[in-house]
């Protein structure tokens, strides 16, 4: 049974014959493994596809995340970017300096950019190469985090308190903006779905009430659009999301990816039988600096914490450093058969 098959069974809240097991994100790791930089590959869709297919095949992950390209659309809105290494491309500043500039943002200019079009095409090349064997997931920012990247995180936090109406307008723009490049990615039948990262929606940054006002409605909207296309929606929110697990049920993703701060047993109490859960081996603990034996112990502890009943993917709790020892990746993947 393929990785794509077991992932589908888990997403459908059933128990597959083996545990779906995966890395999370991993864009910097894939580029680093290939000896490339993001600047060096961003204009070459075939090279992007080759790098990611080779890396994830070597890891034997059940999922392939085409990750770390989500800042490029925001860059082409007008935000400087630093991408001359294998580190994830980093925005330098923001696309607009204040919400007074909101009406200057232009979706078409970004959607038609040849690099953005090439990144979209690279997803299709990955799907053609490996989409029938593994669960190919586009990795993009969810609307709230996209908004915070456009405006800047500090300004977004201020706007939550002082300019809610215009911030909500920006979030509506960001929803359409993100959808403008997510939708064409999903045209390929072997792209399984979308991994929506919403780190700025973290419970470590905003309250549950603010999550319900600013994050959840747009996230629910874009999850619904993905599912309407017959694709899977997987959501990851960094930090401790324990207080919003009930909200995740309402948002309705096929899978919720947990940070290692969240107790899997508590997550199962709330989400079990309602939303598939992925998680939550720490990406910076034993996985980064411990032995393979310690990685195996931590992974087994996650599997035991979730228990029986299906609807579970063994995964890292977030993206992981590019210099993780490969033997630790192999150790995590070895847990497929426990």
Instruction: Evaluate the radius of gyration.
Output: 19 Å
Query: Which CATH class?
Result: Alpha Beta
Structural class: alpha/beta
Beta strands, count: 10
The end-to-end span amounts to: 15 Å
Number of helices, where a helix is a run of at least 4 consecutive DSSP H or I residues: 16
Total number of distinct structural domains: 1
Query: Roughly what is the average pLDDT, rounded to an integer?
Result: 97
Strand order of the largest sheet: 1-10-9-8-7-6-5-2
> How does the major sheet shape up?
8 strands, parallel
Notes on the structure:
This protein has a single domain, classed as TIM Barrel (Alpha-Beta Barrel). The chain is 49% helix and 13% strand. It is of the alpha/beta class. The protein has an eight-stranded parallel sheet with strand order 1-10-9-8-7-6-5-2. It has a two-stranded antiparallel ribbon with strand order 3-4. The chain has 16 helices and ten strands. The longest helix is centred in the middle third of the chain and has 22 residues. Strand 6, helix 11 and strand 7 form a beta-alpha-beta unit.
């Amino acid at each position: 049974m393929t990785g794509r098959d077991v992932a589908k069974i888990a997403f459908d809240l059933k128990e597959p014959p083996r545990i779906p097991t995966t890395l999370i994100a991993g864009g910097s790791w894939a580029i680093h493994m290939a000896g490339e930089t993001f600047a060096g590959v961003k204009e070459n869709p075939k090279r992007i596809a080759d790098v990611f297919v080779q890396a994830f095949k070597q890891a034997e992950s059940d999922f392939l995340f085409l990750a770390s390209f989500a800042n490029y659309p925001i860059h082409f809105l007008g935000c400087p970017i630093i991408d001359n290494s294998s580190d994830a491309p980093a925005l330098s500043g923001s696309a607009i300096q204040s919400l007074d500039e909101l009406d200057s943002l232009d979706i078409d200019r970004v959607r038609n950019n040849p690099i953005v079009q090439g990144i979209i095409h690279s997803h299709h090349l990955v799907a053609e190469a490996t989409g029938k064997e593994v669960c190919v997931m586009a990795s993009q920012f969810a609307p709230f985090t996209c908004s915070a990247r456009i405006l800047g995180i500090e300004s977004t936090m201020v706007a939550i308190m002082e300019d809610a109406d215009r911030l909500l307008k920006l979030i509506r723009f960001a929803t359409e903006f993100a959808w403008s490049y997510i939708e064409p990615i999903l045209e390929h039948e072997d792209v399984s779905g979308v991994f929506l990262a919403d780190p700025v929606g973290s419970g470590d940054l905003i309250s549950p009430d603010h999550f319900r006002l600013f994050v959840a409605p747009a996230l629910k909207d874009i999850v619904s659009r993905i599912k309407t296309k017959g694709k899977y929606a997987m959501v990851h929110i960094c930090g401790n999301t324990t207080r919003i697990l009930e909200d995740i049920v309402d948002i309705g993703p096929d899978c919720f990816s947990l940070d290692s701060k969240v107790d899997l047993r508590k997550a199962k109490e709330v989400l079990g039988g309602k939303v598939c859960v992925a998680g939550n081996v720490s990406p910076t603990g034993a996985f980064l600096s411990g032995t393979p034996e310690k990685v195996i112990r931590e992974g087994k502890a996650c599997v035991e914490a979730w228990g029986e009943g299906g609807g579970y993917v063994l995964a890292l709790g977030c993206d992981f450093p590019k210099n993780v020892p490969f033997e630790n990746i192999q150790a995590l993947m070895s847990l497929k058969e426990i």
